[in-house]
Design goal:
single chain; OB fold (Dihydrolipoamide Acetyltransferase, E2P); five-stranded antiparallel β-sheet; alpha+beta; 10 helices; 19 strands
Length: about 350
């Protein structure tokens, strides 16, 4: 499901907050947001909902976020957690909107994404280094600038799904729909998402040929460089790992999280870079957590910590959010959250721990 940073939603509940005269707690989808009583929101009202980790434009209605650099974050007011913003439809140009409509582009809202910013910077620096005197000379002519003026980023392989789970609060009805199903729960790690793949090319006189690839979360990095993604590839000899595992299949994909020095404040207190896989895919078949962990252990590749392989979903979003809080299995620190998956029905989502977000100001 594509994430909607800002959308038209409906208020499904409003609750009072203890010892609070001017604010109350409104619920939209599965999100709970503190709102001002003076806004007179009512159950059933259509409103503008803006998710956390959104960067809003410098407009009068967002001026109160200037000190936070116009970033929407999780906050706590009167011991009550608030995730996101609820605003009236009056901030929009007109009132002809439908529930669920994505208005991110209309409002000029962008995602706060440090990893994507880093990728853009690395790509820009790489392109800058690749420029030469001939290129600069030829750019004097407009025909050359039109043809070669803009260099594209390395594309992400089309046969691989990018690593970005949907948050439970966006799809709260899933708790009721799959209440009788069993899920596998793993710890969500706070690092850099990475993807490694191997594709079996056509054989040449009976000899198999392979293409090995390294990707960040969004960009294919075909040439070996000094990035964390390639450092991990070399440290764990991932090319050889995938070659050992591909067999007669067309392709194999390994996705995981890089953590450690220089990444997200190194919350796990590591002295070097480390890697924990969370997806193992062969010819479009995704192995479950238990099988993935077992197969990768034989190749000396770690898997993300598995919390429960026989988990029944709790009945409310609040209960699931509470369950997401806890200690990391990797270090003496709070875990970022959890990822829940049912492989049989291909259902998955994440729950980010509010305790983690509040502690780290995220």
């Amino acid at each position: 499901m594509e994430r909607k940073l800002a959308s038209i939603q409906k208020i499904v509940d409003i609750q009072s907050i203890k010892d609070a005269d001017r604010i109350e707690l409104a619920t939209t989808l599965g999100w709970q947001v503190v709102v001002a009583k003076s806004d007179n929101f009512k159950i059933g009202d259509l409103i503008v909902y803006i998710e956390t980790d959104s960067i809003v434009p410098e407009r009068p209605e967002f001026e109160f976020l200037r000190e936070r650099k116009f970033r929407v974050r999780i906050i706590k007011l009167k011991k009550t957690i608030s995730q996101g913003l609820i605003l009236p439809l009056s901030i929009l140009p007109n009132k002809n909107y439908k529930e669920g409509q994505d208005i991110s582009e209309l409002l000029g809202i962008k995602k706060y994404d440090p990893q994507a910013e880093l990728e853009d910077r690395l790509e820009s620096e790489k392109q800058s280094r690749q420029k030469n005197k001939i290129d600069k000379f030829l750019k004097r002519w407009s025909w050359y600038r039109r043809l070669f003026g803009k260099k594209k980023k390395g594309g992400f392989p089309s046969f691989i799904k990018k690593t970005d789970e949907t948050r439970l609060q966006t799809i709260p009805n899933i708790l009721e729909e799959y209440e009788d199903d069993v899920f596998s729960v793993s710890e969500k790690l706070d690092g850099q998402s990475s993807t490694y793949f191997m594709v079996q090319d056509k054989t040449w006189y009976g000899k198999k040929k392979y293409t090995f690839g390294v990707c960040s979360r969004n960009i294919y990095l075909p040439k070996q460089d000094n990035s964390n993604y390639w450092k991990i590839a070399k440290k764990y000899n991932i090319e050889n790992v995938l070659r050992n595992m591909i067999g007669n299949n067309k392709y194999i994909v390994l996705q995981g999280e890089i953590i450690g020095v220089g990444i997200q404040g190194n919350k796990y207190g590591l002295k070097d870079l480390d890697f924990h896989a969370f997806n193992l895919i062969v010819d479009n078949i995704k192995f479950d957590n238990y099988t993935s962990e077992k197969l990768l252990k034989d190749q000396n590749v770690k898997f993300v910590p598995i919390i429960d392989n026989n988990f029944k979903l709790k009945s409310t979003v609040n209960e699931m959010v509470k369950y997401s809080n806890g200690q990391s299995q990797l270090a003496n620190t709070l875990r970022e959250g959890i990822v829940c998956r049912n492989y049989e029905k291909n259902v998955s989502f994440k729950v980010v721990s509010p305790d983690f977000l509040l502690k780290h100001g995220e």
